[in-house]
Amino acid sequence: MILRLTRALDSLARAGLVAGLAAMLVLSTMGIVTRWMGESWLWVDPLARHLVLVCAFLGSIVAVGRKNHIRIDVLAKPMEAAPKNVQHGVEAIVVAASAVVTAGLAWSAYDFYKVEQEFSSEAFLGLSSHHLVAILPIGMALLAMRWLLGLWPAKRES
């Protein structure tokens, strides 16, 4: 069950990342072309900027899943001589701590979202600013969930 959830989240993040990058490319190109023609769609640039944020979270989820995220290898050298079970234990502690910190950031982002919801204004295309700010708590919550899923050992099916 955990393995299926992990794979589903990773697949969804990769597909969303590809779609987001493609959308940013198309929107940015559209913005440039319309400016050349003396026209300007005011909603293109803000939408592309918000897609950058969405892609950053999706890329983070993919990186955590592949263990290609930014790491500070303070313990790398001392842990080389340690037994494998100790190495796995330390890694589990670091992953759990990362999940807790990310969940805390998701909670703070949700508080920010609630404040933004209270004082919301129209951003573009009839969207309220609090709808766009929702990217932050959702992205952080998904990232925290991906960290938590990393605590379970992945068993590869042959």
Give the helices and strands, then pairings.
Elements lengths: L1 H35 L7 H23 L9 H4 L4 H35 L3 E3 L2 E2 H5 L1 H15 L9
Antiparallel strand pairs: 1-2
Walk me through this protein's architecture:
The protein is mainly alpha-helical and 158 residues long. The protein has one domain (2-149). It has helices at 2-36, 44-66, 76-79, 84-118, 129-133, 135-149; strands at 122-124, 127-128. The two termini are 17 Å apart. The mean pLDDT is 88.
Name the features.
158 residues, mainly alpha, 6 helices, 74% helix, 3% strand
Overall shape: it is: elongated
Number of domains: 1
State the helical fraction.
Answer: over 70%
Percent strand equals under 5%
Give the N-to-C terminal Cα separation.
17 Å
Per DSSP E runs of 2 or more residues, the count of β-strands stands at 2
Brief sketch in words of this structure:
The chain is mainly α and 158 residues long. The protein has helices at 2-36, 44-66, 76-79, 84-118, 129-133, 135-149; strands spanning 122-124, 127-128. Helix content is 74%, strand content 3%.
